[in-house]
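Worked problem 6 (solution included).
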Amino acid sequence: MAVNRRSFGWLTLLALVIAGATFGVTALLVSIFERKQEARTPTIRVVDVDETSTDPAPWGLNFPLQYEAYRRTVDTERTEYGGSNALPPSKLEKDPWLKRLYEGYAFSVDYREARGHAYMLDDQEMTRRVTEFPQEGSCLHCHASIVPTYRRLGLAEQGKPAGAEQLGAAFDQESVMKGFRQASQMKYHDMPAELSKTPDGTAQPSNTAKPGSTAQASSTAKPGSTAQPSNTAQPDNTAKPDNTAQLGDPHLGAAHPVSCIDCHDPKTMQIRVTRPGFIEGIAALAAGSDPVPHLPSVVEWRKKKSEKPYDPNRDASRQELRSFVCGQCHVEYYCGSKLSLTYP
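Solution. The predicted structure is:
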């Protein structure tokens, strides 16, 4: 009798193992099938985005899963991996020796833990490093989706039209570089006004601030937004600079943190580098003689002795670009009065 019970137990266990394995294999096959179906139709364009689309919301209509992940950067859960708080904890209070390490620098006054991308502009505007020390416009190089503003300033300097149509047509690296140098000469507190003069790719005015937006016409400030609370939403054109005719777009954009357009071509969705400081810095590195075994494309570019400067968007491999798109901002840099931001 005991033998029969033991046999029955083993059979039951075997059946459960087989059922579990069958479920796992079935789930894997279903997942593979779904991924293959997605690959056949990688994107469904609900709306068009262009080179002015710094607002991530329109991109989110085409890429809802990626937009959902972007919106999670406003998460307020505090973790050891840099989650978000109402105000990030001070590293100076946790490690007082940092005050001496940074003595003479603004970091000795205010240095806090990191938060998600949606808070990039808010945290920079609130830090005492900006409110108590004079800073340059180059500080926004990696804290805002600023490239269309660089392009607008550059086109204007070249005497070319800088309306919404021209701004949205192409990346135009030459104009971006000119605008980058011009913005570097400005004061930090003058730059938000410049950002607000540039359309953000949103076709219609909105009285609701997006996460990370500096829109002023909002009754309730959202997480990551620098909008000021107001009990009465004002018409969209009352708090904006009067340059609608110049830009040819009734909606003048809000300032947004780094978003989709900063790493993706809006036409092809291919990853790309957009930060002028990185483009100049990596070109200088390639033109030098330092060993770069970790950058095969630079080694190959040196062998060819190309007359054109190294351009990561043209010369780098896809694998290198996957590092470059993050490294274009997550890197050490120098900036100072009347100097363009420089990557050492």
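Discussion: The chain has 16 helices and no strands.
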